Amino acid sequence: MQDKEEERSLVNVERKLSQDGFTADFRVTDGRLHTMDTERDKSYGPNEVTIVDFYRFEGESDPDDMSILYALETTDGVRGTISSAYGTYGDSDALEFLKQVEDLGKNLSKSHK
Asked: Which domain of life is it from (predicted)?
């Protein structure tokens, strides 16, 4: 039987999401979500992105050392993830972008499982 903590590790969640088709890596620049694929860089506005799921992780030694991983899907079917530190060390561009997506009501409830 797998330990709950091990099951919820960032690496294991990323592996599961990748198996579910969330293979793109995203970043936020200038208020837009970009694929990190250098061959076909695409960008999306908040209205072109849906938050499919998200996972929070606490640091082993410091509860303030938190991160969050989002599983995203774009209107043209690109599925991938973006992660950010949470709180003080957060990527404010990414967190602001994802807040805009949430404000548009573009968050689903774990529909990929």
From this structure: Bacteria
| Matching residue, tokens 């949430």 | 102
- The span from the CA of 14 to the CA of 9, in Å, is 9
Residues 108, 52 contacting (CB under 8 angstroms): yes
The tens digit of pLDDT for each residue in 25-84 reads: 999 999 999 998 766 779 999 999 999 999 988 766 666 667 889 999 999 999 999 988
Please give the full DSSP string across 18-47, using - where no structure is assigned: HHTT--EEEEEETTEEEE--TTS--EE-GG
List, in order, residues 6 or more apart from 64 with CB less than 8 Å away: 87, 88
What are the boundaries of each domain within the chain? 4-103
Which of 3.30.450, 2.30.29, 1.10.1760, 2.40.128 is the CATH number of 4-103?
A: 2.30.29
